[in-house]
Amino acid sequence: MVKHNNVVPNQHFHKKWQQSSRGPLKVKLMLDQAGKKKSRRVKRAAKAAAMAPLPVDKLRPAVHAQTQRYNAKVKLGRGFSIAELKAAGLTATYARTIGIAVDARRVNKSEEAMAVNVDRLKSYVSSLVVFDKKKSSAAAASATQFKGTVQPITKSAAAIVMETVAVPEESSFIQMRKARKENKINGQRHAAAERKKKE
């Protein structure tokens, strides 16, 4: 037993971490990190080339975070609700084909938030160029693929207003110190004035 008020020793030294029930060794080395990184990058590039000229990322709604602590934060959500798509004049099936994320389980609880997402959908559709898959055209071949977040959420920075501040001749600390000193010697001055009157 250990001395003093310390932790009771309870180390587990009988774990067979070298062995596994399925094979001789349980230890797995990760010496292929650089190779896996390259293969992931090649897969992303191949996926983007296969879906071109469709944007790599989908259009997502602006939603508020959960709980009372974080609900002031606005972020990108999973997908647009069916009501938002209907208000924008779209169907869920067609929206999925033009790069719009759809979340059938999402329910709108705020008219203001719904109006914001409907505006996002309308602005996206207004700037969208749709090509026919069956007819290969030169415009579709020369179209550039958009990469990055579609319609990212931008926070407008509030302008800083510089106000003119009247600076007193003496600081408030010196004024308080003088007032404290005057209050302290006020009795002595009063007594001295009384003595002069008697004289």
From TrEMBL:
User: What keywords is this UniProt entry annotated with?
Assistant: Ribonucleoprotein, Ribosomal protein
One Gene Ontology biological process: translation
Could you name the domain of life of the organism this protein comes from?
A: Eukaryota
Question: Mind telling me which InterPro entries this protein's record contains?
Answer: Ribosomal_eL13 (IPR001380)
The region called Disordered is annotated at 1-21, 179-199
Please give an example of a GO cellular component term from this record.
Answer: cytosolic large ribosomal subunit
> Which Pfam family would be a valid example here?
Ribosomal_L13e
As one GO molecular function, the record gives: structural constituent of ribosome
What family does this chain come from, according to its entry? Belongs to the eukaryotic ribosomal protein eL13 family.
| Record-given protein name | 60S ribosomal protein L13
Species this protein is from: Triparma laevis f. inornata
